[in-house]
Amino acid sequence: MSEEILINVTPVETRVALVENGMLQEAYIERTSRKGIVGNIYKGKVVRVLPGMEAAFVDIGLERAAFIHASDLVTNQVSPDELSDGPKMVPDIRTLLREGQSLVVQVTKDPIGTKGARLTTQLSIPSRYLVFMPGVSHIGISQRIEDDNERARLKAVIEEGVAAEVDHITGGYIIRTAAEAAVADDLLGDMTYLHRLSQSIHERMAKAPAPSVVYQDLPLFIRTIRDLIRPQTEKVRIDSRESYHRVMEFVQEFVTEFADKVEYYPGERPIFDLYSVEDEIQKALSRKVQLKSGGYVIIDQTEAMTTIDINTGAFVGHRNLEETIFKTNLEAARAISRQLRLRNLGGIIIIDFIDMDDPEHQRQVHRMLEKMLERDHAKTKITGVSELGLVEMTRKRTTESLGQVLCEPCPICDGRGFLKTAETVCYEIFREILRVNRAYEVENYLVMASQNVVDRLLDEESDNVADLETFISKSIRFQVEPFYSQEQYDVVLL
Q1: Is the pTM for the entire model greater than 0.85?
Q2: Which of 287, 303, 308, 335 has the alpha carbon at shortest distance from 393?
Q3: How many angstroms separate the CA atoms of 14 and 17, rounded?
Q4: 351 near 393, Cβ under 8 Å?
């Protein structure tokens, strides 16, 4: 499998595209005016404690106060084994926090919609191969490293590094997937870097006022090199000379083995046109995903969850109905896994596969979905196929989806996706005139509405308008307002 990373940098935004086998799989966008804050560390001030929710709001200097749950506080004070026993182990939030108290926190989830950022007091500082967690003694290993011998080797290297530490900084480590096959010197070099960084953060904590930022994560184009580049990555192309030089400085210091894979792209053709990335991003904003067979997938994102529906569409198959349904579901499973990554959809996801009678077909579709999601950088959890043909899954959400970054609710329909028909608006106008007529003494009425509504009032509804004028014994005039939406209207008393 070939893999390339394209990085487009402009003064107003940075965009990253992960391309596998010539097809866009993931897109990341960071705008100068609205940068992501996941991973940032703040010294905040508790502004409100909510015992009924076992949570508190913390001012970290953003427009909206951030949110922290008691379970994200006590991880510093209680062992993971104690927390795993259940909610009863979480102490009363009032014993942990008080209003006005200063608190050092890290953002685990960006503000999304009307919700503020999600916080934790368990700090974690990432590098290329490791994540350092101050104040913890645990050493963990990514579950994606499956070889037992490699897991044992990596753990032994880190344990040896911990035993050789001479400074006073203590902490635990998580060995990242990228550490697989990494040499001991590189791992120990990461440990040294993380200790220096942790010491610097600790010093800033003591001096910083509340609220203020103590540590900011790397910019997107450098985070990409730290988190996404892998041995199978063939090329990383960057279209900004300045950003290319900054990336090369980072690569030569921390990941020298990838230095020959990073290149500056000076081409006249925009870098995102190389693999039709712009077109794929535009398609990812649509509800409908067309399948090659003729079937299609409908994706609807709501505040609570994302629902996905599969239809055979124009695909009629060749053998029988069960085979047609099976092939459509298999193709849909591959498309859905890509769309989840591309659109950065998270939270609860419900997939309504077309009903399959054959248990073996259900198993193969489920396995295909699992296999395709193994490439996903976000953590996912999938249930089996239910009797209704539904698959429930979760995908870790830390940032806004692609649609939330690029779009806003339609001002015409207010995000519903539907408009009232002209007929419906006409009948609303009739009811409004009757209501006003009972309340006020007026001589005539002027109705101001959109072109479609006025056209219908003067044409299909003309008999109803005449009957209404006779009933109220008053005349009704109409005026087109070109800037009104179809649902907007005003009844003016004359």
Answers
A1: no
A2: 308
A3: 10
A4: yes
CATH of domain 3-35+218-278: 3.30.420.60
Alpha-carbon torsion, ordered 373, 375, 377, 378, to 10 deg: 10
Token output for 289: 């995903």
CATH 3.30.420.60 segments of the chain: 3-35+218-278
If one looks up domain 422-493 in CATH, what number appears? 3.40.1260.20
Residue 443, classed as helix, strand or coil, is coil
Report pLDDT for 477. 94
Distance CA 8, CA 14 (A): 6
Over the chain (494 residues), what is each successive 10-residue block's mean pLDDT?
91 94 93 88 93 91 90 59 48 85 92 87 90 88 89 90 69 89 87 88 88 91 90 92 94 87 91 91 93 92 90 74 88 95 94 89 92 89 82 90 90 86 96 92 92 95 94 94 94 90
For residues 106 and 117, give the distance between their C-alpha atoms in angstroms, rounded to a whole number.
Answer: 10
Helix 184-207 × helix 241-254 angle, to 10°: 110
Q: List every span in the chain annotated with CATH 2.40.50.140.
A: 41-215
Instruction: Classify domain 41-215 at the CATH class level.
Output: mainly beta
**Residue 22: left if φ>0, alpha if ψ -120 to 50, beta else—which one?**
left
Say how far apart CA 104 and CA 116 lie, in whole Å: 17
Contact 447, 457 (CB under 8 A): yes
Q: Where do you find CATH 3.40.1260.20 in the chain?
A: 422-493
Helix or strand run (H / E) with residue 11: none
User: CA-CA distance, 395 to 341, in Å (whole number)?
Assistant: 10
Bridge-based pairing of strands 262-264 and 288-290 is unpaired
Q: Which residue has the tokens 């990494």?
A: 182
Query: What is residue 453's predicted lDDT score, i.e. its pLDDT?
Result: 95
The DSSP line for 103-131 is EEEEEEE--BTTB--EEESS--EE-SSEE
